[in-house]
Give the backbone structure.
Amino acid sequence: MKQMNVLIVGVGGQGTLLASKFLGAAAGLAGADVKVSEVHGMSQRGGSVVTCVKLGDDIKSPIIEKGEADVILSFEQLEAVRWLSYLKPKGTVIVNTQKINPMPVVSGAATYPDNVMEALSKSDINLIALDALSMAAECGTHKAVNVVLLGVLCKKMEEIDEIIWLDALDSVVPKKFAEVNKKAFYMGYGR
């Protein structure tokens, strides 16, 4: 399998850890070597969170350095901009258009920038922007934003069969949430 570096970024509580487990499980089931970094950031306090997932043949380290990410999977638009320097030239950003105010905005010390999506669209990147929050809600829960976004990414990873993605999803999601997450996966996968 061709090496791929995926940076998963978001805000604490959005499911970045589940996303990295899902991606890692699928790549492992497909026979790839997989390294996943631990979640870095304020995951329990609504702060910025980043996870690195590297997959392919003979992966030495899970850490993705600046300019090495093939894909940034961003659960919130400001986080996409915050981590953009980690993207390879002509890399892909898959971004949820949702805005979540960071602590400086919540405390009144700063304001949320007005032109985040415009700045991303003017960057020299492959940009896939979608309202994953609305799509997840349509599936039955707003908490499935992560799985909608992963569905978009998975469709682009043609080396891994659809059935492997579904098996991986079943392995990381509790059974009582399996159906809603499958709906969310297909909402992104079929986009």
